[in-house]
Amino acid sequence: MKSEFLRALPVIEELEKNGYEAYFVGGSVRDLLLGREIRDVDIATSAPPEEIERIFPKTADVGAAHGTILVLMEGEPFEVTTFRTESAYENFRRPENVQFVTSLTEDLKRRDFTINAIAMDKNGNLYDYFQGREALSLKLIQTVGSPEERFSEDALRMLRALRFSSQLQFSLSEDTLEAICKLSGLLKHISVERKLSEFDKLLSGKSAVSALHLLRDTGLIDYMPGLAMPSNRMDQFLARTLSASFGTAQRWALLLFDLHPEEPEKFLKQWKMPGKTMKEILNILFFLNERLKKSWNEELLYKADEKTVFYTESICSSQPDWKSSIGPEEAVRRYRDLNIHSRNDLRINGDDLVCLAKKDPGPWIASALTKIEEEVLAGRLANSAKDIERWFLQWSNRAEM
Ligand code: ATP
Ligand code: MG
Asked: Are 203 and 237 contacting, i.e. CB atoms less than 8 angstroms apart?
């Protein structure tokens, strides 16, 4: 058994010792069977939430109402979820309340796709009541039960179908695809936070471009904030080469570059992204635009930081029509070669200037430092206290501050 599962084994054993059933379920079993890297190992159990909390000394309530408790085993967190059904759906969203059940089959039945509805016990035996393994071998995304029913219960599943097709490079089964085309409008009931989480994964998947084609062809795109732009802009993005090494922020930045909304910040705000992520995306977008206007020069490199230079230039070098790229490594080398990387690197500071000039502090300090930065960056002035002092005295005489 793989180490990711072995580490979670004590959780299963402990639940069984207390008379409950417990299985590995969902993404981890799917990824194990596909030979993909396994991320979080989720566990489903017949134990009700309060029993899980009683059995394990260290737990955190991450959604007891939905039956999910985080169990900490030697510092590592495992999501343990009580077998449940989701019967009363309201407004095409997952219900506020769930019903706990005692059978694994019932629990697997409420899961979205057959590939996500396989369970595995502690001995590695598989419980595959919905032909999930067959779907894996056919590379198919197929709902558990009637797609129309399942998408009407929770419309987010339509977007999840596309994100799994992007991540796994799978196709949608015919009836699953048909149902999405028919019911795409239901996506309007889903919160932007849930859409964002799936869209981030869709955009980062290996088949992002095909999944985006599907997003458009099924009509789901109309319910994705800002994406239903004039279609030639999306066409431009769909013709891109998205290198596997691109992170989510780079992908968003390139998407924004092609869609060129009037106000990129407003565009991202509609998605309710965390401020930090938004800043990172807008930063890459800014340097992408600048870099394409003129190549990297000292001034532009200085405004950026090493990571942004790397990210921006990797995007440029992967686009066949932006051939002039020097490549990310070379761009980073040039960045590192800058004489200074921030004002703090100057061998002189504002206080020194005040002493030298024998003048009261004022806005002149900032303009003097900016000028010194420019000179040092361009290599016209050495970054030594003596040289800068000499230069400053001459400059202040000339500038008659
Ligand atoms: P990832 O590797 O990206 O985490 P995952 O399959 O684990 O993929 P999650 O969103 O973490 O996906 O969900 C865990 C499991 O819960 C799924 O495999 C699926 O069985 C079930 N599930 C999640 N969301 C839904 C939903 N909206 N409707 C039905 N079942 C769902
Ligand atoms: Mg998961």
From this structure: no
Q: Give the residue from 326, 261, 260 showing the smallest Cα distance to 291.
A: 326
pLDDT tens column, 138-183: 999 999 999 999 999 999 999 999 999 999 999 999 999 999 999 9
Q: Which ligand places an atom closest to the C-alpha of 163?
A: 1
* Mutation test residue for ligand 1: of 62, 89, 112, 146, the one with most atoms within 8 Å of CB: 112
- pLDDT (tens digit, 9 = 90+) per residue, 162-173? 999 999 999 999
Residue nearest to atom 24 of ligand 1 (CA): 112
pLDDT averaged over the chain? 93
- Total Cβ atoms within 10 A of residue 300: 17
CB 95 within 8 A of CB 89: yes
**pLDDT reported for residue 96:** 66
Atom of ligand 1 nearest to the CA of 201: 3
Q: For 222-247, write each residue's pLDDT tens digit.
A: 999 999 877 789 999 999 989 999 99
Angstrom distance (rounded) from CA 151 to CA 146: 9
Residue (of 30, 127, 147) closest to 83 by Cα position: 127
Ligand 1 site residues, Cβ closer than 6 angstroms: 26-27, 39, 42, 111-112, 116-117, 154, 156-157, 201
**C-alpha torsion 135→136→137→138, nearest 10:** 50
Ligand nearest to the CA of 190: 1
Instruction: Enumerate domains of the chain plus CATH numbers.
Output: 1-138 (3.30.460.10), 141-224 (1.10.110.30), 228-338 (1.20.58.560), 345-398 (1.10.246.80)
Is the whole-model pTM more than 0.85? yes
Reference 289, options 316, 265, 249; nearest CA is: 316
> How far apart, in whole angstroms, are the C-alpha atoms of residue 71 and residue 13?
13
Q: Which band of pLDDT confidence, cut at 50, 70 and 90, is reported for residue 320?
A: confident
Q: What is the pLDDT of residue 88?
A: 58
Please say whether the beta carbons of 18 and 51 come within 8 A. Answer: yes
Nearest ligand by distance to the CA of 201: 1
> Residue 16 and residue 93: Cα distance in Å, rounded?
33
